[in-house]
Amino acid sequence: xxxxxxxxxxLKKLPLFAALREQDLKxxxxxAKIRIxxxxxxxxxxxxxxxxxxxxxxxxxxMVKSSDCGKELIVDFVSPGDILGLTMVYPSAQSGVTVRxxxxxxxxxxxxxxxxxxxxxxxxxxxxxxxxxxxxxxxxHNFSRSLAHDRAQVRVASALVxxxxxxxxxxxxxxxxxxxxxxxxxxxxxxxxxxxxRVTKAMERDxxxxxxxxxxxxxxxxxxxxxxxxxxV
Length: 233
Hints:
By secondary structure, the protein is α+β, with helices and mostly antiparallel strands. The protein has helices at residues 2-12, 22-31, 112-121, 123-147, 152-166, 182-189, 193-205, 222-229, and strands at residues 33-37, 42-44, 53-58, 61-66, 72-78, 83-84, 98-101, 105-110, 177-178, 209-210, 217-219. The radius of gyration is 19 Å and the shape is globular.
């Protein structure tokens, strides 16, 4: 089917599955499903067990943790090509975060019971999975640390730099463009939409951003944004 072919093609692009034989990839693709999440819909909750493996095809998801008082902290975002459910290497582990779609997203779902036998029989696949898990933890730590900054300008710059590395469209070769509304940027950085508009407008005046198209943020100077993101109190 077309869905099965799309899944197989997506899996082939990932270093994680490079060690698998062609037939093994076809087996995974035939059992996997594509799930559509609406904006605000939860993929899985913090504390949930038995998480399957998920691969993001398109869209944007947020990884959030809840404090004792109920406040949410965004620890990372998940964009196309990213893998979720990496804790499946520890069968009894609970999810440390809630994963929620920020916008309409399509996800490939691979049942853990299907993937576990491949992990047990293929040491290289297991090593790649552990490397991916380590990288996710490092990335989440860096992203959440940048969002802990008091200044909204630093938060916005940090988010845009992170998005530039993982979620950009081409703009006739001029500069990368992030497909994100100001409301979505505000949600991602934990600020109000009014603040997000004010900060991005100021960055546009300074020649860092291009905001001419709705739902598109053109990154005219990633290096300047990176310098802002590295500011400390």
